[in-house]
């Protein structure tokens, strides 16, 4: 893992960070690199309300906000930006305004690395809209001022079209922090993590392999 000056993580939902890059985040923070997490929505349309249910549609935004902060605390993130967009509507935001919001963060923080989803390979419309906005914001910068852009991809065709990920972080030293971050988003993850409990107890190699290896692709700019 290369030394970075500042990392900016941009995802649309609470828990997007937990599954894909929470170990990477924790590793950067442990090495002394500041990490800012910009989360576009509070995930208030999340499909789960707890297991057994403890949230309602009305209470879920407040609960997920607290879960996001708890997850950030477990990873050591001290700078969380909640941008206040509405869940499942990011794709309908004005492209220019959304790009400007990302550009403002880049201008303020001057990150050496941005982590987001890979446009075209991240399945959910909010993921895709967020990824496109980040790409537009980075592309607008002079080439010599553009930060590195590393992306999470998980569509069925991502490996076939992008190739194998060129970045694989072994986050074994901080896997407890990653698991804590996933657990923090309990309204969405409790049922799933309950099914993992036995596998974690016996250190199931397939599950541990998925947890311990975080895969990213360096964004490939289209040829002009």
UniProtKB/TrEMBL annotation:
Pfam families recorded: PIG-L
InterPro entries hit by this protein: BshB2, GlcNAc_PI_deacetylase-related, LmbE-like_dom_sf
Co-factor(s): Zn(2+)
GO MF terms held by the record: hydrolase activity, acting on carbon-nitrogen (but not peptide) bonds, in linear amides
Matching PANTHER family: N-ACETYL-ALPHA-D-GLUCOSAMINYL L-MALATE DEACETYLASE 2-RELATED, N-ACETYLGLUCOSAMINYL-PHOSPHATIDYLINOSITOL DE-N-ACETYLASE-RELATED
Protein name: Deacetylase
Native species: Peribacillus loiseleuriae
């Amino acid at each position: 893992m290369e030394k970075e000056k500042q990392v900016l993580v941009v995802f649309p939902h609470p828990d997007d960070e937990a599954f894909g890059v929470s170990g990477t985040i924790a590793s950067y923070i442990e090495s002394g690199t500041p990490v800012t997490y910009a989360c576009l929505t509070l995930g208030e349309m999340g499909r789960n309300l707890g297991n057994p249910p403890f949230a309602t549609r009305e209470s879920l935004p407040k609960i997920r906000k607290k879960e996001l902060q708890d997850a950030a605390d477990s990873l050591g993130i001290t700078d969380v930006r909640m941008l206040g967009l509405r869940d499942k509507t990011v794709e309908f935001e004005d492209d220019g305004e959304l790009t400007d919001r990302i550009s403002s963060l880049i201008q303020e923080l001057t990150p050496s690395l941005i982590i987001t989803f890979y446009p075209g390979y991240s399945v959910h419309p909010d993921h895709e809209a967020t990824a496109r906005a980040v790409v537009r914001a980075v592309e607008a910068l002079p080439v010599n001022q553009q930060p590195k852009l590393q992306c999470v991809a998980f569509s069925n065709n991502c490996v076939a079209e992008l190739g194998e990920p060129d970045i694989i972080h072994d986050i074994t030293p901080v896997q407890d922090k990653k698991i804590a971050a996933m657990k923090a988003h309990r309204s969405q993850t409790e049922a799933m993590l309950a099914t993992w409990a036995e596998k974690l107890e016996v250190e199931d190699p397939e599950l541990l392999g998925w947890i311990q290896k975080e895969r990213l692709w360096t964004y490939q700019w289209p040829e002009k």
